[in-house]
Every structure is written in structure tokens, then in C-alpha cells.
């Protein structure tokens, strides 16, 4: 029984597995870490997609022409090794407890094309974040690109980040409440996770003591793109590390300018925020209806600008520069992620989602 359970767990990502401790004081199921050991009496909760054996067929949603067209409309770039999507806000990247539809599941259904393998995730974006999402089309490309994104996440020294050529570069656009004191700068502040409400929720925050076990090195470059007399500022954010909620916390707690729509880290600023009416709301009504008709997942893509009462998160991965892995593979130059330093790069650009474009238009008028 234990051997079968281990086989099942090894066949899925650990983040989808939950453990309920045998300790009477700790009954809420918690996520299982990759190297976590089990105790006698612990119960393991697996996703509903898991049957008795890993080879069992997983229950699937029927294919839909509308869903396929929607997924294909997100495609920014495709070559023999990767597919790049412009992820819409509100659609989870990966499945899990309480998530019915996710991009990895949808890509496996609608974006295999002539390949026998389904596209694989090599990095993630928050559910409410939008923008460039890279997926590997083969096991080899996914493995190498995953190592590239992982290196970005686990880099630990400012000197290393500044001295070596960056194989991966990402630039986000964000609309924030208020305006930073400086027009540009480098944020280097460690972050860590704190558990709240007796383990029911968690939050990322600035760690004053870098010796804390949960403290992680986090660096972000920023510059002001434009500001408005209405109290908003557009920022370009370049994360040099890849920590959870890094940009959101750096904006809110370091710059003092929380991202619009980020109610987790900027709820106080939103309480004081005055509703901004838009003179273009009638003009945009027809476009909003069309967006809703082309939205098979009920993401409300036509809503959420600063002219709405409850704006959506205004954080978008707009540009990414990464190695042309397909070209490198053709030239037999790839052995590991380190070999990609001298490979020709691809620059990807993702248009703003509709709610951020409407906010841009509103502040520009």
C-alpha cells in the first residue's frame, strides 16, 4: 500500500498533495513539501483526478470549439520547442484543490497540435496576473527552460545578478496607487512567509532579520513609465529574482505604492481610493459585450479597470527575453541551461489585457 502511494505521489507535483497531521492540535490539511517525511497516523489527500492507479483514465471535460479558439487566440509565439501564451487575468496556470479549469490542462487539450506530448509549464504566474507564459513542447525543452527559470528563482547574491549576463529577462507593467519618491531604482529587500489565523492563511512580508529560516533574497529593478494627476503611476518592474508575490510586496511595502487591484497587500490604500469615473464607458460598452461573448471561462475580461468600483489586479508580464532554444538545439549547442548564455535571444511582447488598457486610456485622456 505504501509503495503504491509513493508511486502515485511521484507521478504528480507535490503542491497538489495535502497532508492532515495526526496531531490533534493540527487538523487542517497542509501542502506537502518535496522532502517532507510522513508520521504514523497522518492522512494524505490527493487531487480528485487521481484514481486507483496512475494509468487510469482521468475524467475530462468535453472539447469545445469556443474554448479552442480562445486558447489559440492567446498564442504569442510558437516554434518546435516552445509555445508562448498571453495569459489572461483570472485563469489559474495550474490545477489544484478548488480549481476546475487551468491553463496547463487546457493547453494539453487544445495546444498539442501534431505533437504526442502535451505542453509543459516551465514557470508560473499568479492567477490574477496576466502576460507572458512560456511552455515547453518537449520533455527536453521543458527540462532546460525549467532550469533557467529555477536559476532565476534561487539566485542569492546581488553581485552575481549584476555581473553575469542574464539568460532570462522579464519586464512587468504595473499601475500603482501613489508615486515612488525616485523615478527609478533597485530594491534589494529579503522576503519571507508568515502564517496567519492559526495556519488558515499566509502572507509574504519583508524580513528584518536575514538570518530567519524563511528569509529569501529578493531584488527588483523599477522605473516610472508615466504618472497621473489623478494619483496613479505606471511602473516598469524587472524582477532579478523570482520570489512568490515579490513585485506586489516590493511595491506595497518598500515603495509604499501598492498595485491597483492588489487587495491582499494594499487593502488600506484601496479603502481610501476614490472611484474614478470614465467618460469612455459608453463607447466601450459594445467592446465589453464582445469580450464577454468571446470569454468561454467567464473571466469577466471586460471588467476591472480603474473606472470600475472594484478594479482587477493591474500587473502584467509585458516583455520577456529568453534564449532561442529551438535554434540552439538545431545547432547541437545545448547541454544544460548554462550553455544558453551565448545563444541568440528571442524577445517576446504581450499586449496589455483589456482592463489595463482601459485604465491606460482613462489616465491618458
Task: Note down, in words, how this protein is organized.
- The chain is an alpha+beta fold.
- It folds into 3 domains: 46 residues, no CATH class; 89 residues, Pseudouridine synthase (2-Layer Sandwich); 140 residues, Pseudouridine synthase (2-Layer Sandwich).
- 24% of the residues lie in helices and 23% in strands.
- It is built from 10 helices and 15 strands.
- Strands 4, 5, 6, 7, 8, 9, 12, 13, 14 and 15 form a 10-stranded mixed β-sheet that branches. Strands 2-1-3 form a 3-stranded antiparallel β-sheet, with no helix packed on it. A two-stranded antiparallel sheet has the order 10-11.
- A hairpin with a 4-residue loop joins strand 10 and strand 11.
- The longest helix has 16 residues.
- The radius of gyration is 22 Å and the shape is globular.
- The relative contact order is 0.13.
- The N terminus is likely disordered.
Amino acid at each position: 500500500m505504501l509503495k503504491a502511494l509513493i508511486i502515485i505521489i511521484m507521478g504528480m507535483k507535490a503542491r497538489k498533495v495535502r497532508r492532515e497531521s495526526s496531531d490533534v492540535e493540527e487538523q487542517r490539511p497542509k501542502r506537502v513539501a518535496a522532502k517532507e517525511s510522513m508520521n504514523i497516523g497522518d492522512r494524505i489527500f490527493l487531487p480528485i483526478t487521481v484514481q486507483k492507479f496512475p494509468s487510469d483514465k482521468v475524467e475530462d471535460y468535453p472539447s469545445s470549439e469556443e474554448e479552442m479558439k480562445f486558447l489559440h487566440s492567446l498564442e504569442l509565439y510558437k516554434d518546435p520547442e516552445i509555445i508562448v501564451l498571453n495569459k489572461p487575468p483570472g485563469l489559474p496556470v495550474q490545477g489544484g484543490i478548488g480549481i476546475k479549469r487551468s491553463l496547463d490542462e487546457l493547453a494539453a487539450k487544445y495546444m498539442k497540435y501534431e505533437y504526442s506530448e502535451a505542453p509543459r509549464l516551465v514557470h508560473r504566474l499568479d492567477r490574477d496576473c496576466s502576460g507572458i507564459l512560456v511552455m515547453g513542447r518537449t520533455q527536453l525543452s521543458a527540462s532546460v527552460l525549467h532550469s533557467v527559470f529555477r536559476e532565476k528563482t534561487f539566485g542569492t547574491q546581488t553581485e552575481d545578478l549584476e555581473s553575469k549576463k542574464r539568460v532570462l529577462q522579464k519586464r512587468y507593467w504595473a499601475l500603482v496607487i501613489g508615486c515612488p519618491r525616485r523615478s527609478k531604482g533597485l530594491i534589494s529587500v529579503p522576503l519571507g512567509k508568515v502564517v496567519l489565523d492559526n495556519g488558515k492563511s499566509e502572507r509574504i512580508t519583508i524580513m528584518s532579520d536575514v538570518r530567519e529560516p524563511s528569509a529569501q533574497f529578493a531584488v527588483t529593478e523599477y522605473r516610472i513609465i508615466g504618472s497621473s494627476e489623478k494619483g496613479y503611476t505606471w511602473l516598469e518592474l524587472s524582477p532579478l529574482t523570482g520570489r512568490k508575490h515579490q513585485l506586489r510586496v516590493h511595491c506595497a511595502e518598500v515603495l509604499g505604492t501598492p498595485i491597483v487591484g492588489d487587495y491582499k497587500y494594499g487593502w488600506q490604500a484601496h479603502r481610501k481610493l476614490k472611484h474614478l469615473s470614465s467618460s469612455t464607458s459608453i463607447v466601450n460598452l459594445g467592446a465589453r459585450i464582445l469580450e464577454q461573448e468571446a470569454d468561454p471561462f467567464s473571466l469577466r475580461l471586460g471588467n476591472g479597470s480603474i473606472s470600475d468600483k472594484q478594479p482587477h489586479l493591474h500587473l502584467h508580464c509585458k516583455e520577456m527575453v529568453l534564449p532561442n532554444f529551438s535554434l540552439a538545439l538545431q545547432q547541437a549547442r545545448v547541454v544544460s541551461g548554462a550553455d544558453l548564455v551565448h545563444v541568440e535571444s528571442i524577445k517576446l511582447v504581450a499586449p496589455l489585457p483589456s482592463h489595463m488598457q482601459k485604465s491606460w486610456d482613462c489616465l491618458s485622456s
